[in-house]
Amino acid sequence: MEIPSPPPAQSVGVVQTQFVELFNTGKRLLLDCGATLGPVRVAYETYGRLNPEASNAILLCHALSGTAHAAGRHDPNDPKTTGWWDLCVGPGKPFDTDRFFVICSNNLGGCDGTTGPSSIDPASERPYGLTFPMITIADMARLQKALVDHLGVRRLLAVAGGSMGGMLALQWALDYPDSLAAAIIIASTPRLSAQNIAFNAVARQAIMADPHFNGGNYYDKERPRKGLALARMMAHITYLSEKGLHDKFGRRLQDREKLSFGFENDFAVESYLHYQGSSFVKKFDANTYLYITKAMDYFDPFPDPRTTAERLAAVTAKMMVMSFDTDWRFDTSRSKELVKILNWHAKKVTFEEFPSPHGHDAFLLYQPLYQQSLASFLNRLYLEQVGGLVAAPVETDERVDGIV
Amino acid sequence: MSRLRIDQAIIAKLVDERSRVLDLGCGDGLLLEYLFQHKQVQGFGVEISHAGVHACIARGLPVYHGDIDQGLSDHQDGSFDYVILSLTLQAVRRPEFVLQEMLRVGKRSIVSFPNFGYWRIRTRLAFGGRMPRSVLLPDSWYETPNAHLCTILDFQDLCNTMQIRILRQIPLAAGGGLPSGLISQGLSRWLVPRSAANLLAPIAVFLLERGEP
Question: Are A46 and A102 in contact (CB under 8 A)?
Answer without folding.
Answer: yes
